[in-house]
Design goal:
The chain contains nine helices and eleven strands. With 224 residues, it is α/β, with parallel strands linked by helices. The protein folds into two domains: 114 residues, Response regulator (Rossmann fold), CATH 3.40.50; 90 residues, Arc Repressor Mutant, subunit A, CATH 1.10.10.10. The strands form three sheets. The chain has a five-stranded parallel sheet with strand order 2-1-3-4-5, with helices on both faces. Strands 6-7-8-9 form a four-stranded antiparallel sheet, covered by helices on one side. The chain has a two-stranded antiparallel sheet with strand order 10-11. Helix 3 packs parallel to helix 4. Bound molecules: calcium ion. Calcium ion (CA) binds next to loops.
Amino acid sequence: MTTAERPAVLLVEDDAALGPLISELLEPDFSVRLAVNGSDGLHLALTQSWDAMVIDRGLPVIDGIALIKALRAKGIATPILILTALGATDEKIRGLDAGANDYMSKPFDAMELAARLRALTRTYGLPAQTLGIGDWELDAGARSMRSVYGSVVTLTAKEAGLLETLAGEPERVFTREDLINALFHPTDQPGVIDTYVHHLRRKISKTVIRTVHGLGYQIGDPHD
Ligand code: CA
C-alpha cells in the first residue's frame, strides 16, 4: 500500500549511473519506475497512470523533446519535468514549448528535484481560492486554470504565480523588471518573462496576457 500513498513518478534517463541514483534519492517520497530509453518511456507513459514524469533531454531511440511532444499529442496531461544540460537555455525553452511543466539543469540537487516534484504533484484539500480572469478561474494554489466551458489547464508554480500577480492588479501594466522582482531571481534575464508569457498564451489563450508595447504586460481577457 505504500506505493499507492506515494506519488508515482516515471523517470526516463539513459545514464546508467544517474538513473538508478535519482530513483534511489526519490524513493522515500515517490514510487519511481525507471525507463532507460525513449521508447520504453513512451510505452510506460501511455500504458500506466503517473503523477509526474522526469524525462531526460538526450535519450536513445526517441529523444526527450520528441517523447514529450508525443505524450502531449496523445492528450497525456501529467506534469513533466525535463532534465537538460547546464546552461542550455534553448533546450529549456524547447522543452517547455514541447509541453514540459518545469525543467532542471544537470548537475542538479536531488533535494531540489524532490521539492519540484512535490510542487508538481501537490493537490490541496483546502477550499480553492480562485481569481476570475475573463471566462476563466485561476486556482493558483492548485496551479490550474478552469474555463466556464470546462477546459482545465495545469500550470507550473511560476506560471500560476505570473497569472496571479497580473490578475491581482488588473489595471496595472507590469514591466518585465517588476515581474522578475516579484517571481524570479534578480539575476534572471527579463526575456524569461517573455518565455513564460508565450507559454501561457499557448496553453490557455492568445489573449490571456496583453502586451503593452514599450511597457510590459497586463492581464488580458482569455477566451476558451
Ligand atoms: Ca541522456
